[in-house]
Amino acid sequence: MGTILAQSMVMREEREGMDDQIAEIKKLHPWMNGDQAECFKLYIDGIGGLHHFFGKVLPCGKGVEVKDTTNWLATYDASLLTFLVVSAHDRAIRMEIMPNNNKMLKFHFHKRKHAERNDLIWQRHPTIEEAIAVVRTNSR
After folding, report:
1. For residues 111 and 35, is the Cβ–Cβ distance under 8 A?
2. Strand segments (E) across the chain
3. Fewer CB in 10 Å around end: N or C, the chain?
4. What percent of the chain stands above pLDDT 90?
């Protein structure tokens, strides 16, 4: 019983910390709604905090567009790419990466939900386990 209570307290502290970070993001960018702030937080978590962000964040439909000078995406060494992909699946956030110019990358983030197959494709997002299964099934 003590272990369950301790785990519950840790989870509550993590949620409260996340709520504080979302509130800080919304204070800096008052145009953001909760989903947009959560999307931006995904990127901020990946780069190590707001104090490391020197780019721009803009509205992009119901999500956000992040433009940053990040040029160290990798699946292992710097691990930002791995963090973003895994965390996006955990948080049900669709992420798209594209070039912005010769010095910046552009990221689009849109909040979705983990849901049933009968939801529309633009509403749902697979878990990491579901995405891995699809890749492994379709690989040759």
Report:
1. yes
2. 56-60, 63-68, 93-99, 105-111
3. C
4. 45
